[in-house]
Design goal:
The protein is α/β, with parallel strands linked by helices. The chain has a single domain, classed as Alpha-Beta Complex (Maf protein). The chain contains five helices and seven strands. Strands 1, 2, 3, 4, 5, 6 and 7 form a seven-stranded mixed beta sheet that branches. The chain binds inosinic acid (IMP).
Length: 194
């Protein structure tokens, strides 16, 4: 019998990523798999706070063991902005083009382009909370480059690479990305604690 756990997302890309690395004894259910179409609140002011808020929402309302993630892009010269507000940096529309335009405009004239992505995953099993973190460091380019990926990928070039995340295959990105690192920590933990 496969053990069930809910990933508090309907993002197909994230679901596929986790399902591809978790072992067969786990069945990863999405929000739509459990009939949840609620707008889950994400009003904390830290990535960990938001990840926990989403995971507890599902645990409390549906009773399932569950994990949830939250990601931000933290830019050194902007004091860590957009950080926890990455999705709605340019307003509430979740418009990646507008977010990138605002980021590039705010960095105009600044020499320090250093930035990192950070992902926090909160896992709730029974009454136990465990969190996992993954980060990738790099620089913000001067203009978008590449067609792949999503979000800020066209303007983020990871250290050690000549190209942005948007120029990489999803396998190459997942191998070094913030979410890939945090997800592999989660998957290792689930394998060892099942
Ligand atoms: P979320 O918490 O995964 O929804 O991420 C919040 C926001 O961060 C997204 O709306 C994207 O703008 C951005 N983001 C998250 N992960 C990535 C990534 O891997 N590449 C580029 N942008 C990302």
């Amino acid at each position: 019998m496969r053990k069930k756990i809910v990933f508090a997302t309907n993002n197909a890309h994230k679901l596929e990523e986790v399902r591809s690395i978790v072992d067969e004894s786990w069945q990863i259910l999405s929000l739509s798999d459990i009939g949840c179409n609620a707008d889950i609140p994400e009003t904390a002011d830290t990535l960990a706070g938001n990840a926990q808020m989403k995971a507890y929402f599902i645990k409390d309302k549906f009773g399932y063991d569950c994990f949830a993630d939250d990601t931000g892009l933290l830019v050194d010269a902007l004091g860590g902005e957009p950080g926890v507000y990455s999705a709605r940096y340019a307003g509430d529309g979740h418009d990646s083009e507008a977010n990138m335009r605002k980021l590039l405009a705010n960095l105009e004239g600044k020499d320090n382009r250093k930035a990192h992505f950070s992902t926090v995953i909160a896992l709730i099993q029974g009454d136990r909370l465990t969190t996992f973190e993954g980060s990738v460091y790099g620089e913000i380019t001067f203009a978008p480059e590449g067609e792949g990926g999503f979000g800020y990928d066209p303007v983020f070039r990871p250290d050690g690479s000549e190209v942005t995340f948007a120029c990489m295959s999803s396998e190459a990105k997942n191998a070094i990305s913030h979410r890939g690192i945090a997800t592999r920590k989660l998957v290792d933990f689930l394998s060892e604690n099942s």
